[in-house]
Amino acid sequence: MTAQDKNEQHREEMKKQQAAHRQKMAEKAKQECGLLMVNTGSGKGKTTAAFGTVLRALGWNKKVGVVQFIKGKWKTGERLFFKRFEDLVDFRVMGEGFTWDTQDRERDIAAAREAWNVGLGMMQSGDYALVVLDELNIVLRNDYLPVEEVIAGLQSRQKDCSVFVTGRDAPKELMEVADLVTEMQNIKHPFDAGFKPVRGVDF
């Protein structure tokens, strides 16, 4: 087969794929309300992917709310970056650090409750196109907040508000009501090989 034949064969295959894609798109309905999205799993990148969606929203000049439930006051690249967009990004660090640092269940529950109230206010206000509830799944896994209450709150959000929930071990009930669920799978991680997290890559 000559190079010209290969090119022609490729062109015909791409035409078929293009036609199939256009047909699928024609069958889809336009999304009329915000999405409930969940990133979970043991792999790295759950929060990172959610922040990628934040960048898309900012590209369209949309206002975003971020509530971090667990990570505490430690300095991260994303916090430093989003300070440049204070008119569009309402970034709230509500946690007191990882639960193995606080070692105080009642204190963790109180912090989770306060963070949830802030996130709920954002979702119901009508001011935000996207709200990221970072590490909320960890809060639910540890029974700091009732799953039923959280799901009811998520469903009470303004119609055009999309929400991203991140963290390992998302409860089954949450995944069932979500519009999009992505599970990150850990194949290989430098931490397991003895390396510390890297500034600008991991935080």
- Net shape: globular
Q: What is the CATH class designation?
A: Alpha Beta
CATH superfamily annotation: P-loop containing nucleotide triphosphate hydrolases
Count every beta strand, where a strand is a DSSP E run of 2 or more residues: 6
End-to-end gap: 51 Å
Q: Using the CA coordinates, give the radius of gyration.
A: 20 Å
- Report the CATH architecture: 3-Layer(aba) Sandwich
Please state the structural category. alpha/beta
Strand order of the largest sheet: 3-2-4-5-1-6
Mean pLDDT equals 91
How many domains, as an integer? 1
Amount of beta strand = 5-15%
Biggest β-sheet strands, sense, barrel: 6 strands, parallel
- What fold name goes in the CATH topology slot? Rossmann fold
Low-pLDDT stretches: none
Helix share of residues?
40-55%
Order of helices and strands: HEHEHEHHEHHEHE
User: How large is the count of helical segments?
Assistant: 8
